[in-house]
Amino acid sequence: MTFKFTAFHPLTSPDLAAAFHEGHTRILTDLGIESITSNYPEWMSDNNVIAIIVTHEDGSVVGGIRVHKYDGTLELPIVTAIKDQDSRIVDIVENKRLTGGIAESCGLWNAKKVFGQGISPLLARSSVSLSNQLKTKTLVCFSAPYTLRMIKQLGFNEISEIGDQGKFPYPNEKFISSALEISNIQNISTATIENHSRITSLMAEPIQTVVEISQGKELTVEYNLLVHFA
Prior knowledge:
Layout: E1 2-8, H1 14-30, E2 49-56, E3 61-69, H2 77-82, H3 88-98, E4 102-110, H4 119-130, E5 138-143, H5 148-153, E6 157-158, E7 167-169, E8 176-182, H6 193-204, E9 207-214, E10 217-224
Parallel strand pairs: 1-10, 4-5
Antiparallel strand pairs: 1-2, 2-3, 3-4, 5-8, 6-8, 7-8, 9-10
């Protein structure tokens, strides 16, 4: 099975941005999390956002993920999610912005037709490589319990200064989600050997075709992760 992973800037590729948003919204609606709306979110016009969209070999859009760089204006999604529980996240993000730059990997989704096919780990890994193009030192994310193991294998660690060692009841008391970071994107020392190797490869060569093994599945992935900015 072949998939195309295409990175884009929403301002230069509005059609891809719309397809990403519509696919993501459809999944959230199916899960009862969010209603479909015709209003497009702020990230679609944000100069500091890049994203990846996944296309199935049949041409359908089946997944995506975004990376948001913080420039001191639009709040990162992780800040919006947890600042009411622990306001220290605001200062942490601002300090990281001033000492090398900070971005967030967020908005991970995949369509029902590819559930269990290993798309999510490859998307999450690709988003780490994308942060290199945004020239940031720190990459953060907010992980649900069911994706935590996958995220930590990429080199993320809990932000222990906030919450309960980085853990928060979110989106409600039934779930304990985690705020995590890679503190130096150029030296991901805690990633697994395979993930470190593939992240480094995608940073150096963002356009490549590789047979990936993910969640026990063999996938041919055509990567085009070189982003053209507005």
